[in-house]
Design brief:
about 160 residues; mainly beta; Pnp Oxidase, Chain A; Flavin reductase family protein; two-stranded antiparallel sheet; NADH-dep_flavin_reductase; oxidoreductase; Flavin_Rdtase-like_dom; Split_barrel_FMN-bd; seven-stranded antiparallel beta sheet
């Protein structure tokens, strides 16, 4: 893959990764996401970027909500599943414990923390589309500071659908 102008900058980053799940039109999907961040405090908003080549993106186009999960560093199994397999070929939810949220979004029961967000808008960002989320449901507060799964922990996973 050719280098970009941002490679020298992004190579030093080691941000958290997220598993994003969605249900719409009778389908469920989920993927490992590295492009995501809180983007507003008042009102609270979070932006998730999904690759346009990804099964999760195709399901999310018809969705009203997305669920965003953080995993503990020692929970690489779900990261490998959601990052290394594609929903075009595999039912990932047959391989993990989950439950539906109030709106029906799949919630991974093994996640350290999660929230469900209503999709406020979608933004074309090139090969990714941004989903601006307003939180509607949030996991209980944490009592300890977890060691979260980060990019360095998953960078060797071969993507199910290359970006």
């Amino acid at each position: 893959m050719p280098e970009t102008e941002l490679d020298a900058f992004t190579e030093v980053l080691n941000g958290p990764v997220y598993v994003v799940t969605v249900a719409a039109a009778g389908e469920r999907s989920g993927c490992l996401v590295g492009f995501a961040s809180q983007c507003s405090i008042r009102p609270p908003r979070f932006m998730v970027w999904l690759s346009v080549r990804n099964h999760t993106y195709r399901v999310a186009r018809a969705a009203t909500h997305l669920a965003v999960h953080v995993l503990d560093r020692d929970r690489c199994g779900p990261a490998e599943l959601f990052g290394g397999e594609t929903g075009d070929e595999v039912d990932k939810f047959a391989q993990v414990d989950w439950r539906p949220s109030v709106d029906g979004s799949p919630l991974l029961t093994g996640a350290r923390a999660w929230f469900v967000g209503r999709i406020e808008t979608r933004i074309d960002g090139g090969d990714h589309v941004g989903f601006l989320l307003a939180p509607t449901e949030v996991s209980p507060p944490l009592r300890t500071t977890p060691a979260l799964l980060r990019y360095d922990d998953v960078k060797e996973i071969d993507p199910g659908k290359p970006a």
